[in-house]
Amino acid sequence: MSATPYHNGYDQPMPEHSHMQYGYGQPMAEPSHMQYSGAPQHTYPQQQQHSSMPEHVYRDSLQPANSSETLADPWYNQNAERSAPQPYDVEAYSSADKRKRRVCCCFPTRKSCCLTFCLIFLVILIILGVLVWYFWPTIPEYGYVGPYEPTSTAQFVHLAPGSEWKPGPDIPLVKSGITLTSLAGNFAFSYGMGVDVWLNNKNRFDIAMDRLDVVGRVKGENGQFIDAKNFKLQINMVNVNFPKNANTTEHVPLDLRYNATFSQIIGQKDPFLQLLATSCQSSFLGISPSSPNAIPLTMEFAVNVAPTAVRRLGITINTTIGPFDMACPAQLKDQLKQVDTLTRGLLNGALNSITG
């Protein structure tokens, strides 16, 4: 190996082949690995001429002449150790990779996350559907007996507080027994009836109501419902309960009330009073039966209740109770005749003045 003016930084001569000339008259450029940290940096003329040097010639010039020279080069050995592949820790990489790949809480893949939550949502929907189907209310079978005129209030245990219902007719004019001398007052009466309603509750919950307020209607002689301007038919009860899977009978109070001034009655052909006159075959307050044949009092109730068990769900039971047909009770017929006796003289004079 001949001496060379170029030095590799370790007081050792460069390999002989690195100073071969390739027709350029200049020594070859120092190998590129000599320019990393740890070795002196040099600039050679060949580095400036690399752009015009054939690529395969320049690449071959960077390789050592033989393996013994390579092993003898301390700088080469030092950098070879640095560039050598590092040990591969499979367990550490796998653990880190698993943590990195966790998505959506603790699921390894997005697909498994979506499938799991969809399954949970589907199970919840199925459970809700079964519960709604199981507890959905149905209109129970029912029937009734009556209406009838009760003899006492003992069996009507669910009357609403403050209710004025009482069995039978109640006409203040008849109670007073005083012959009417003026048309300045009102004609009022009430009639308390009862009806026994049985209900076969096949629902899976009790049909319980804290309060039951129902308004009924009455059909006139023409078969149409009468405008409830001067009268009302109502039911007022509390703590009504029909146990589940049981057939229960409830005594229901019907309260019929009428109130109007005499000026609204005389000569006005009130349809409700006309119905009473024909049904009871009695003349009173200048109103006579329109037919010699008595017709029944026909009543009907539209019930809209929300059982306590499903009230928060906004579920209601809507049904119609009736129509009830009731013949004029004998006690009411007698009291209407007394009304005619107490008012006949005054009303005849009033009617004559109107017709005259």
From TrEMBL:
TM annotation in the entry: 117-136
Annotated Polar residues bias: 34-52
Highest taxon listed in the record's lineage: Eukaryota
Alphabetical keyword list: Membrane, Transmembrane, Transmembrane helix
Region (Disordered): 1-55
Protein name as annotated: Late embryogenesis abundant protein LEA-2 subgroup domain-containing protein
Record lineage: Eukaryota, Fungi, Fungi incertae sedis, Chytridiomycota, Chytridiomycota incertae sedis
